[in-house]
Amino acid sequence: QVQLVESGGGLVQAGDSLRLSCAASGRTFSNYYMAWFRQAPGKEREFVAGITWSTGSTYYADSVKGRFTISRDNAKNTVHLQMNSLKPGDTAVYCCAAGRTLSVLETSYVYWGQGTQVIVSS
Q1: Are 38 and 81 in contact (CB under 8 A)?
Q2: What is the per-residue pLDDT across 93-110, written as a single tens digit (0 to 9) for each?
Q3: 94 phi, psi to nearest 5 deg
Q4: What is the DSSP string of 3-53?
Q5: Pick from 12, 27, 18, 8: which is nearest to 77 by CA?
Q6: DSSP H or E run through 97
């Protein structure tokens, strides 16, 4: 079965950095689109960043462009999200997802991880 497990979250101050990881198992994702979503308390889940596994092409939400970087490690079947210059508005539970369609809509993704908490204090 396919499993996605996130790690790397924590409590940091504004301006700090964190690196999230999403370890995938059960299959390879050479034909998949991988993405990070986040959800803050009382808010809708939103797209953060995505990557085409086979080519490494990336896409970012405007709110994180220039601060976050998504990448993948083929050998370890893992996708990462490097988060720099963190702001209090980045506080949320971050989840990784995999799907067959390039989209910012959560309904396009079939596999989801449990999420990892990121808290940014001011």
Answers
A1: no
A2: 999 999 988 799 999 999
A3: -100, 130
A4: EEEEE--EEEETT--EEEEEEEESS--TT-EEEEEEE-TTS--EEEEEEET
A5: 27
A6: strand 92-99
Q: Report d(CA 65, CA 78) in Å as an integer.
A: 21
- Which tokens in the block code for residue 24? 């995938």
**Residue 50 tokens, joined:** 């995505």
pLDDT digits over 40-88, tens only? 999 999 999 999 999 999 999 999 999 999 999 988 999 999 999 999 9
Question: CA distances (Å), 103 to each of 14, 51, 97, in order?
Answer: 30, 11, 11
Residue 88 φ then ψ, to 5°: -55, -30
Structure tokens at 105: 């809509």
